Every structure is written in C-alpha cells, then in structure tokens.
Amino acid sequence: MSEISFSHVQTAHCESGVISNLFRHYGLSISEPMAFGIGAGIFFGHLPFVKVNGVPGTTYRIWPGAIFQRVCERLGVKMQSQKFSSPEKAQQELDRVIAQGIPVGVLSSVYYLPYFPPSYRFHFNAHNLVIYGKNGENYRVSDPIMDTVTEIDPASLSEARFAKGFPEPKGKMYYPVTMPADISLQKPIKQGIEQACHYMLKIPVPMFGVKGMRFLAKRLKHYPEKVGDRRATLYLGNVIRMQEEIGTGGAGFRFMYAAFLQEAAGVLQQPELSKLSLELTGIGDLWRNFAFHAGRVCKSRAADNISYNELGDMLIQCAAAEEVFFKKLSKVQL
Prior knowledge:
single chain; alpha+beta; 2 domains; 6-stranded antiparallel beta sheet; 11 helices
C-alpha cells in the first residue's frame, strides 16, 4: 500500500475543514473561512416538525454537503463520490483507493468514533473526516476538529459509516479526480456572498434565514405554557447545543464568516467588507450572550434568571442585527 504523506491542520468545522485539508493536499491552498464563505455556509433554520432526538431541529449553517458541493462547483473541482449498499463493499473500495495513495473524505456518525471523548459522542450522522492510509489493520484518520491525526479500527469505522438514523451516511466516500491548475477566487467569492444574502433574507418560508430567527423567538417565548417546564428546558437546551457544541456552533459560524469577509476584502480590494466583518463579529457576541443566559435558565443556576420571554427578545435582537447586516452586505459593489 502506498504511504500517503498528509498534512493535517485542525479546523473549527468538519465540512469546511475537510475541504481545506483535502484541497491543500492537491496544491490548491484555500483557508477554512474562504471555503465556508464561497460555499455560502452561513444560514439559520428552525424546523419544529423535524425532530432531532425528540426535540425540534435548529441549524445555524446550511445543510450538510452543500458547502462542499458549492465550493467544488465554483472552483472547478471534480469529485468522485460514492455510497454503498453494504459495509463490505464500502471497505473494499476505501482500501482500493487509499492503496493508490489517494486521501479519501468519508461521512460518518460522531457516535461511533472511539477517538472522541464519550461526552462528545452523539447521534450526528453528517461528520466529515479524511482517511489517508493504514497502520496494520487500523485506518489513519485526519479528523479536522482534532488537534492531531489519529487511528480507527475497521469495525468502528464501518459502524460510523453505516449508522442508522437521519441522514444515513450509507458509507459515503469522496475524493478529487480533477483539480484546476490555477484558480481565481474573485467570482466564487461574489457568488458565495450573493447566495448567502439571498438565503438569509429572501426565502419566503418563515422557518429560514432572518425570518426563521423571529419564528423561533416567538415559539421560545411560549415554551413553558405550550410544552411544560421539563420539555421547555429540553427544547431550549437543544437550541443552545446546536449553537455552541455542534460543529462550530451558531456564534462560531458568524465568527468564521466574519473571517471570510476579512479575507475577501483583500482579494476583492473592497474595504467595505472589512467593516462588515467587524459588524458580524459583534453579532456573534450577541449570540454568545443569548447562549450564556439560556444556559443559566436550563441549569437554574441563579434565582434572578431571565424569563423565556426575555430570551425570545434576545433572539429578536439577533434577527434584527442580522437583517441589517445582510442587507448592507447585499448592497456592497463586488
């Protein structure tokens, strides 16, 4: 088997991190924030009818896989992507490809990754990592949210690649087959910004973008009387968990998009993007403040905790700030 020399860099988020690490291996240097921005990863959605572990789903980024798809399309990268009907076929194909010295991105469930601390394992089936070789029977792993490379045994990897639940990974693996010799980031940056503004401001469905934040805020205000104190705590806890613990988290995605705008300002020679980068960093702080107070409510840490109604008002403040921000961003001459 070919020994693959793979440069591992720890990143904040698995999907944009795998993009950055895989592309750099092939000589296409792109930062994680740039991948996130070109892929229009920033988003918001609250889906009360889509239950995650029995509670309504909330997301602070675009759906899994979309960032990768958009970045590849906009940069002219052709990927080979496969899903499989059985763990055996998936392992055979993985072995065949890495034997050729090709690092492979795979989709997995966090729950079955033994190198994760137990407290971080939960049923999330859209985690991306890179397999870049073998050490005996074990696979060498570059997981972008880990500080160093690690290994995983074949049984655990199969479990992670074929976990049940929504969405089912079905052993998905992917790797570049055509990389452009030279790229210009200017058009992809513009396309990413335009798409992000559209998704945050103009989706007519009330559950998405800025409208989705206000939709959640109204529901959150009435959680205790609608679903009872216990379920209200569970529902609120999931909103915080998705914001602060899953992937980069909601505020973290705002900080990452701010870093993208700072980088884009230099590429496009557009100082207005630097100003907006600072503004978005401030909005990320608003989200962190909401999470802090919501966490105290969930844990009943203080007698003077704010109410669900006040938490809803904080969300409305976040929505108002993001609406102003994305309207300004949509009007920048790129």
